[in-house]
Specification:
Elements (H helix, E strand, L loop, with lengths): L8 E4 L7 H8 L4 E4 L4 E4 L4 H8 L6 E4 L2 H15 L9 E5 L1 H8 L7 E3 L4 H13 L6 E7 L5 H6 L4 E11 L6 H8 L5 E4 L2 H10 L8 E3 L2 H9 L6 E2 L5 H14 L2
Keywords: Lyase, Porphyrin biosynthesis
Family: Belongs to the uroporphyrinogen-III synthase family.
Catalytic activity: hydroxymethylbilane = uroporphyrinogen III + H2O
Length: 257
């Protein structure tokens, strides 16, 4: 059976434990995947006021969940504060992307709004148009990471009262795998995979003098961060998802045969 990625080595920079889907998709095509996390995600220490919002979820009409990380951490905090993971019946949920939707469903909830794309830009205009149809200006809760951009709340300011809470933070891991670091320095790999601008920034901190690298980016936003830091991505996935970036990688190598 032809495996277009046979003997190729990919290095994923996603947080620990989050490369499973990419790993499976690439190894099915004959590749080897090494994990070199350049991002670490942890819960934020919420203020008293922020914790209060979790006890008063019935005051909101919409909850926006932007990522699988956000879903897991939101329900973890909800359990800690309220002692359960129950949401008010009147609270509708909007999810960005299919992966977020699927993670939400694992908690027993279905999204009332799911946008087809996976970025804040894809989500904002369609969701704002949805809110315009409501009879009153809704209250929206937006739990996100500390590095999340302001695209969503900016787009909703005319149609909703949006409350943002940073429920998790993205940091650089304290330790990295020295063997994989040496492999990267010595160019003993085929492609580095980046899925966020923070991964790009942390790569620069880890390898400040290394610019000539082979890299694939999950979408335009990550690719833009790479270019701003002096890199030239070989692959930019049109579909910002694990399946999307693997499909783009396949197309890239098939086109070179």
């Amino acid at each position: 059976m032809n495996q277009p990625l046979q003997n190729k080595v990919f290095i994923s920079t996603r947080p620990a434990g989050m490369s499973n889907e990419i790993n499976c998709l690439l190894t099915e095509k004959g590749a080897a995947v090494l994990e070199f996390p350049l991002i670490e995600i942890s819960k934020t220490q919420l203020s008293f006021t922020e914790k209060k919002q979790f006890t008063r979820l019935n005051q909101f009409q919409w909850l926006i969940l932007t990522s699988s990380n956000g879903v897991w951490i939101f329900f973890e905090i909800l359990q800690e504060i309220n002692g359960n993971q129950k949401l008010p019946e009147n609270l509708k949920i909007a999810a960005i992307g299919e992966k977020t939707k699927e993670t939400l469903e694992s908690f027993g909830y279905r999204a009332a709004f799911v946008n087809p794309g996976a970025t804040a830009e894809d989500f904002s205009e369609p969701f704002a148009n949805r809110l315009k149809t409501e009879t009153t200006k809704p209250k929206v809760l937006l739990p996100v990471g500390n590095l999340a951009r302001t695209v969503i709340q900016s787009s909703l300011k005319e149609v909703a009262n949006c409350t943002r809470i940073n429920i998790y933070q993205t940091e650089m891991p304290l330790k990295t795998d020295k063997n994989i670091a040496e492999r990267i320095k010595n160019n003993r790999y085929d492609m580095l995979i980046f899925t966020s601008p923070s991964g790009i920034r942390n790569f620069v901190k880890t390898f400040p003098k290394l610019k000539n690298i082979s890299m694939a980016c999950i979408g335009d936003i990550t690719a833009g961060a790479a270019i701003n830091n002096g890199f030239h991505p070989l692959i930019v996935a049109e579909n910002s998802s694990s399946k999307g970036i693997v499909e783009s990688i396949l197309n890239y190598y098939i086109s070179k045969t």
